[in-house]
Design brief:
The complex is a heterodimer. Chain A is of the alpha+beta class. In chain A, 71% of the residues lie in helices and 8% in strands. Chain A folds into 2 domains: 175 residues, no CATH class; 94 residues, Alpha-Beta Plaits, CATH 3.30.70.3040. In chain B, a hairpin with a 2-residue loop joins strand 9 and strand 10. The mean pLDDT of chain B is 94. The chains are: A alpha+beta, B alpha/beta.
């Protein structure tokens, strides 16, 4: 085990140029993967924030009884397209309004101009039914009027899904590239040691004995590349979140960098490296 | 120890070994002889699992070589070792490292094997060359290193292919004495040679191969 590590390091060192190039390319791939990953992660947070605002606002007619309101809410729930339904009485709405507008001004009107409303939040995957549902609700006997968010939010949702799909595609391609780089590097080192390996087989070395140093080599390549990427991300993080940058572009402070990156990335590198090396060696055959 | 039963081996549908049936007892020293191309090396390779019989059965210890799985071959090679005609030594390593290699492959720790390697090197009179690179040594010396590497794990069978191939008579005699001494410790030794001098005036059994068949 320990000697496999020494052996692997020696092997990487004796092929230092191919090792260096492999590590750098793996590092670049992991770096882009992480950037895309963080981008997608933030996109998710952003769209979630928006979709919380994306509620149908249903204004109810005046003089509807409490029981009728309950019945209406139930009928909405039955549709199974809403994630949350909230009733706001006109008294509550007025209270809210008084917090925004000078109360004495409202008192001047002499009556409550607001109506009872229901806020209904649409489930993410039901967004395409938005138009249909609001048309249906408009004709409901209790409904005075209906307001629904503009198509912008709908478009944003579609955009988000498209970006995610594209992101996943690029991530897979980059993952495959890393696999291929390690595969090719390890296979090359394995072939260069053809004679050495042949002698080991003749001396009764088991497949795992033969594989160990090369799996270690692959793991080290993956780990080194991913650590390179992690370090770069860390650096960028520091620069971006520094006071000067934030004061210059305040929106930066909204960016979220999940700390999991700092251990997930090296683990992924190690794992991907070992798997690629395993694939590169293939089945160990004896002659 | 070794049993052949109706064994055939073909290369490109040309028969190289035909209808071979024989037994080698445990602890025996035996010569396989015959002219070049008779099939001696092929026979040894069959015992080592390097080649498979096309017909017939080969048993070595508990191993059924006609049906042996790839994963069992390393285990076969723990009890059967081979002294190759071209040595198959690591030319870039020292004498010590070459002889230590089979023990490391078997999972023994570096510090536990030191004494054993030096003892084995002493037996082949190469103790003083332990730290020398193999590639700087003569053919006779390399032959003895190959033998040292083959005996260090105390195998039950040693196969030797032309072990005196291009050695002078004196060195040949030394090499033969090495085989005799490991045989005296109970190891089965199979020597393939085209040189009748090796078994002239000895009581050892000799199998004569010609065109893949035994001569009576
Ligand atoms: N890998 C191989 N492919 C094809 N023919 C082979 C191969 N190995 C050996 N032969 C042939 O088999 C015959 C026996 O070879 P070998 O066992 O090496 O004989 P010996 O060791 O007695 O000189 C020879 O005719 C040789 O050319
Ligand atoms: Mg031969």
């Amino acid at each position: 085990m320990n000697s496999a590590l020494v052996y692997a390091i020696k092997s990487l060192w004796s092929n230092k140029w191919s090792t260096l190039i492999a590590m750098l390319s793996i590092g670049v791939c992991f770096f882009i993967i992480t950037l895309i990953g963080i981008g997608l992660y933030n996109l998710n947070i952003f769209t979630k924030k928006i979709s919380n605002k994306a509620a149908l606002v249903i204004y109810l007619k005046n003089g509807i009884s409490q029981a009728e309101i309950e019945q209406f809410k139930e009928s909405l729930e039955k549709k199974e397209v809403f994630s949350k339904i909230r009733f706001i009485s006109k008294e509550d709405a007025l209270k809210e309004m008084k917090e925004l507008i000078e109360p004495s001004l409202i008192e001047l009107i002499g009556f409550n101009p607001l109506s009872d409303t229901v806020e209904a939040f649409i489930k993410d995957d039901k967004f395409n039914k938005l138009e249909e549902i609001s048309k249906e609700l408009k004709n409901h006997k209790y409904v005075e009027d209906i307001y629904y968010p503009s198509n912008i939010i709908y478009a944003l949702k579609i955009l988000k899904i498209t970006i995610w799909n594209l992101g996943i595609l690029i991530l897979s391609l980059l993952g495959l590239s890393i696999l291929f780089i390690i595969y090719a590097t390890v296979k090359n080192h394995y072939w260069k040691k053809g004679e050495e390996i042949e002698i080991l087989k003749l001396l009764g070395a088991t497949p795992s004995y033969i594989r160990y140093p090369f799996l270690t080599e692959g793991g080290l390549l993956g780990l080194a590349g991913s650590i390179l990427a992690t370090a770069s991300i860390f650096l960028i993080y520091f620069v971006l979140y520094s006071k000067e940058t934030v004061s210059y572009i305040p929106a930066i402070s909204n960016l979220v960098l999940p700390v999991e990156v700092f251990y997930l990335l090296p683990s992924a590198g190690l794992l991907l490296g070992v798997i690629s090396a395993f694939l590169a060696l293939g089945k160990i055959r004896y002659q | 120890m070794i049993t052949f039963l109706g064994v055939y081996k073909y290369y490109d549908s040309v028969p190289v070994l035909q209808s071979l049936s024989f037994k080698i007892e445990k602890g025996e020293l035996i010569f396989i002889t015959g002219p070049s191309g008779a099939g001696k090396t092929t026979l040894l390779k069959l015992i080592f699992g390097s080649e498979r019989p096309d017909e017939g059965e080969i048993k070595v210890g508990d191993f059924e070589l006609s049906r042996i799985r790839q994963s069992e071959i390393p285990h076969l090679r723990r009890i059967v070792t081979f002294v190759f005609q071209d040595f198959k030594l690591r030319q870039d390593l020292t004498v010590y490292d070459n002889v230590a290699l089979p023990l490391l492959v078997m999972g023994q720790k570096e510090r536990d094997i030191k004494q054993k390697v030096y003892d084995t090197l002493k037996n082949v009179n190469l103790r003083h060359k332990a730290d020398t690179l193999v590639r700087t040594l003569s053919g006779g010396e390399q032959q003895r290193i190959a033998i040292a590497r083959a005996v260090i794990t105390n195998p039950r069978v040693i196969l030797a292919d032309e072990p005196t191939g291009n050695l002078d008579p004196d060195t040949s005699r030394d090499v033969m004495n090495l085989f005799k001494s490991v045989n005296a410790l109970g190891c089965t030794v199979v020597i393939a040679t085209h040189n009748p001098e090796l078994f002239k005036n000895t009581a050892y059994r000799v199998l004569h191969l010609k065109e893949g068949k035994f001569l009576k």
